[in-house]
Amino acid sequence: MTQSIIELRRVFKSYSPSTGKKLFSREENKPPVNALDDISLQITAGEIFVIVGLSGSGKSTLLRTLNFLIQPGSGDVLFQGQALGSLNAREMIELRRSQIGMVFQSFALFDERTVLDNVAFGLEVSGVSRDERHKRAHAMLEKVGLAHVAAQYPHQLSGGMQQRVGLARALVVNPAVLLMDEAFSALDPIIRRDMQSLLLVLQAEQQRTVVFVTHDMEEALRLGTRIAIMEEGKLVQVGTPENIINAPASPYVRHFFSGVDTSRWQLAESFADVWQPTL
Ligand SMILES: Nc1ncnc2c1ncn2[C@@H]1O[C@H](COP(=O)(O)OP(=O)(O)OP(=O)(O)O)[C@@H](O)[C@H]1O
Which residues contact 210 (CB under 8 A, 6 or more apart)? Predict the structure, then answer.
């Protein structure tokens, strides 16, 4: 039986349109924005769960509710069966530190730390000794092909290399879940594909649970075990790449893969129709 590691039950989150804007602005009369509108879903341990949607559809809000960087207005978020709303501040910090890693589009590295010390950061705050954390950070840098730049500083590296450091930093603490918010979107197309390949290689090796937000359907199809499509705060379809391509729930969903070569997934489906195991 497949096991769900994260579960959302009827999660809502709305924002006042005047948040962050001037008082007395015209926005005050507008209704609240439903960034998350009755989201229920289960994420299975070991899958790459990709969230896709137009800008403003609620992808980042959804991702950030998974580690409570954003607290839902109502509903429950469960991690390994435990409601995050029941954790105190210390337990929440510990959960984020050890169980739910995050990789950002902006890399978010520490400029004044070497690459090695950036990767070792999570171990340092967990109290791991210097020798041990350097050993583990080095091993992780080897996995992402960057052991040779361990002593350099982030500004000396290309964007792709910096994001590999970001990935190594998130992975070194061995989190059960990795949240990735448009993590490869700032990279040029070739480097972006390399990073996708690296993630797939690491995933084949480690079978972590990855939740990955992207605008790009091609990336979603390449990476996703399942893909969730968001529209105006709602989940409009959740399924495997094959499901979504062969039975898009609406024109909005179909719009996402207009211009994307979907033949590989359509082929998979048509083989499934005619091919039967011989044993
Ligand atoms: N702090 C906030 N205050 C007010 N409104 C917000 C806030 N954060 C998000 N929103 C609104 O909630 C909705 C969902 O935003 P969210 O950032 O989750 O969407 P998104 O799909 O990730 O967009 P993008 O792809 O552009 O990052 C949008 O209408 C956005 O303007």
Answer: 47, 48, 49, 177, 178, 180, 199, 203, 223
Nearest CA to ligand 1 atom 11: 35
166 assigned to some structural domain: yes
Instruction: Give the pLDDT of residue 271.
Output: 44
Give me the helix-helix angle, 159-171 and 130-143, nearest 10°: 130
Q: Has residue 97 been placed in a domain?
A: yes
Nearest to 178 by CA among 40, 5, 9: 5
Q: Is 272 a domain residue? A: no
Low pLDDT (below 50) residues in the chain: 22, 269-279
Question: Is the CB of residue 33 below 6 angstroms from any atom belonging to ligand 1?
Answer: yes
Structural domain harbouring 150: 4-12+33-258
CATH number for the domain harbouring residue 248: 3.40.50.300
What's the DSSP call for residue 275? -
The domain total for the chain is: 1
Residue 211: closest CA among 61, 81, 93: 61
Q: What ipTM did this prediction achieve?
A: 0.97
- Measured by CA distance, the residue closest to atom 16 of ligand 1 is 58
pLDDT at 275: 39
Ligand 1 atom closest to residue 20's alpha carbon, by position in its atom list: 3
Q: Is the CB of 60 under 6 A from ligand 1?
A: yes
Residue 265 lies in a domain: no
Average pLDDT, the chain: 88
Q: How far is the CA of 51 from the centre of ligand 1 (A)?
A: 14
Is any ligand 1 atom within 6 A of the Cβ of residue 104? no
| Each residue's pLDDT tens digit, 6-15 | 999 999 999 9
31 lines ligand 1 (CB under 6 A): no
